[in-house]
């Protein structure tokens, strides 16, 4: 499959956003305002500072599927979801979904057990690598296929298409960053992409994509973007993962993530080195 040349910082940016945001997920606005300095991984119960969560792991499943060029079928993608979880179990998954993943040996079992009626943000959060695909039509089609496995709802699918297209727009240089909202309004209609998101970000796909877009449009450096994405409060790891991943696709963005965050990112078998070389 022909794919666009990628930034080696794309997955790394997603992982840093995810790991940083994981320290603030659904914390109080007071805690976020006080500690969101963009310079340290905050400790939170159940999570190891500097370790990424389900957002990056499922992004890796999609990334590997896109890069390997296998038939992009529900069965194959479900296999990847099961495979990446079992090779490297980690926290952050919704409890019900994690239970199902744990109990499955392959994608067929996963497809049998899932009831994909959610419009939450699980499909959107793993969609940045879809931007690598060669055309808008392919991004939208593949986003629909992958979203439908877990989130077979209009909102779940549209949220995945929006995130994939945000990355695609940047990687393919389809316009200026400032034109991105208008592009989404054309290709993923029904959501007010030009209206800035305000306030806590719920576990809702289209809201998460909108918040990530708002942050992406408001900044031009990754360090500023990281703080801006988390400052919304709510589902901070998903918003930061998507926003940071998309920022790595745009020439307008200065890739200036603090060394302390890059060096502090986990570096096990699927950590920093893996993310910059696959
Ligand atoms: Mg997460």
TrEMBL record:
<feature type="binding site">
    <location>
        <position position="54"/>
    </location>
    <ligand>
        <name>Mg(2+)</name>
    </ligand>
</feature>
<dbReference type="GO" id="GO:0016787">
    <property type="term" value="F:hydrolase activity"/>
</dbReference>
<dbReference type="InterPro" id="IPR036705">
    <property type="entry name" value="Ribosyl_crysJ1_sf"/>
</dbReference>
<dbReference type="InterPro" id="IPR005502">
    <property type="entry name" value="Ribosyl_crysJ1"/>
</dbReference>
<protein>
    <submittedName>
        <fullName>ADP-ribosylglycohydrolase</fullName>
    </submittedName>
</protein>
<keyword id="KW-0460">Magnesium</keyword>
<feature type="binding site">
    <location>
        <position position="55"/>
    </location>
    <ligand>
        <name>Mg(2+)</name>
    </ligand>
</feature>
<keyword id="KW-0378">Hydrolase</keyword>
<dbReference type="GO" id="GO:0046872">
    <property type="term" value="F:metal ion binding"/>
</dbReference>
<keyword id="KW-0479">Metal-binding</keyword>
<dbReference type="Pfam" id="PF03747">
    <property type="entry name" value="ADP_ribosyl_GH"/>
</dbReference>
<dbReference type="InterPro" id="IPR050792">
    <property type="entry name" value="ADP-ribosylglycohydrolase"/>
</dbReference>
<feature type="binding site">
    <location>
        <position position="53"/>
    </location>
    <ligand>
        <name>Mg(2+)</name>
    </ligand>
</feature>
């Amino acid at each position: 499959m022909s794919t666009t040349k990628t930034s080696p910082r794309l997955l790394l940016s997603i992982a840093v956003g995810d790991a940083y945001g994981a320290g603030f997920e659904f914390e109080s606005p007071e805690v976020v305002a006080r500690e969101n300095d963009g310079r340290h991984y905050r400790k939170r119960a159940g999570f190891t500072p500097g370790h990424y969560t389900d957002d990056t792991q499922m992004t890796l499943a999609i990334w590997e599927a896109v890069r390997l060029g296998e038939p992009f079928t529900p069965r194959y993608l479900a296999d990847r979801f099961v495979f990446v979880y079992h090779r490297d179990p980690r926290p952050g998954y919704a409890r019900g979904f994690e239970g199902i993943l744990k109990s499955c040996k392959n994608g067929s079992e996963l497809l049998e057990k899932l009831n994909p009626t959610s419009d939450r943000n699980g499909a959107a959060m793993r969609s940045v690598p879809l931007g690598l695909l060669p055309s808008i039509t392919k991004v939208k089609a593949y986003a629909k296929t992958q979203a439908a496995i877990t989130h077979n709802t209009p909102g779940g699918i549209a949220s995945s298409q929006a995130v994939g297209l945000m990355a695609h727009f940047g990687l393919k240089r389809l316009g200026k960053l400032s034109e991105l909202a208008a592009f989404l309004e054309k290709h993923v209609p029904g959501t007010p992409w030009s209206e800035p998101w305000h306030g806590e970000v719920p576990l809702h796909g289209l809201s998460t994509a909108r918040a990530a877009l708002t942050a992406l449009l408001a900044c031009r450096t990754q360090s500023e973007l990281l703080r801006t994405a988390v400052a919304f409060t709510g589902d901070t790891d998903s918003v930061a993962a998507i926003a940071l991943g998309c920022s790595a696709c745009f020439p307008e963005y200065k890739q200036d993530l603090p060394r302390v965050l890059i060096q502090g990112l986990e570096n096990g078998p699927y950590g920093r080195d893996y993310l910059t070389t696959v």
